[in-house]
Write the structure tokens for this entry.
Amino acid sequence: MNIPDAPLLDVKNLKVHFHTLRGVVHALERVSFSLNRQETLGLAGETGCGKSVTARSVLGLIDPPGRIVNGTISFNGQNLLNLDEAAMRTIRGSKISMIMQEPKMSLNPVIRVGDQVAETLVIHDRTLNRRSAKTRAVDMLAQLGIADPSRMVRRYPHELSGGMCQRVMIAMMLVTRPQLLIADEPTSALDVTIQAQILELIQKLVREIETSVLMITHDLGVMAETCDRVAIMYAGDMVEIGPVRDVLKNPQHPYTRGLLKTVPDKTNPDQPLFSIKGNVPSLLEPQTNCRFAPRCEFVMERCRREMPPLCKLGDNHHAACYLHDS
């Protein structure tokens, strides 16, 4: 298959601010990454680092008091930030879909799940009638391994388990065969067994539909299992990005090293858990230096004064740290 060399999604210097009564929250400062066609990119980091804000920015879902103040988001060579809401509606849901956190909160509790999946098709394909859309919804649920999908489409969300609701959510997002799927913590509310099933289903359908995936997670195991490349975020900044094996086996940013150390060692269960000293900096202050500097064991005076650039360390491997600045 002839796949264009240009990335499907290219985000450069994305900056998002939220204007609150306490001041301006600098949620994202200089987020840059690219996602190739038929690739899975993991976006990892601790809670509050800006992963979901990044995803919502791609979909044009930053509502007041939030505002995108700088940067470009190119999808298929088109800058999404230049489009109005009507143009974004033609992309959102059909070309770019997003699996939200907490599927039971995302599904409408008073509409049958089959009608919700079918509605997604009808909205984005006006040539389909309700009956044809319902048939395709049943077929999609069958692909997700749901037993007796013809009966399942008549149920309401409250009648389903968390794993079943997540399957319905995945069906809604993939039934239009989007070019890009954003999965925001798709397994966070599920037990380990169901997690493995959901991840396997996502990978299977992505291969069949030939969709690119932006996988947002704080679970390093999920990231290692599903992603081709990974981007590590800290306090609204991109600190390291590269092939998943390189980043996990040979992390080059002090925060990434600390993050990997926090994973419990199964071979030594009596070993005390590691924690990174210090606290996450306040996002009310604009970024003028390395935000990880107050917690870094390798901090230099330069780190406290200037923002380190993303230094190239190898093939597609970059880290924002002065330790690698020649």
Remarks:
- The longest strand covers residues 23-35.
- The chain is about 35% helix and 25% strand.
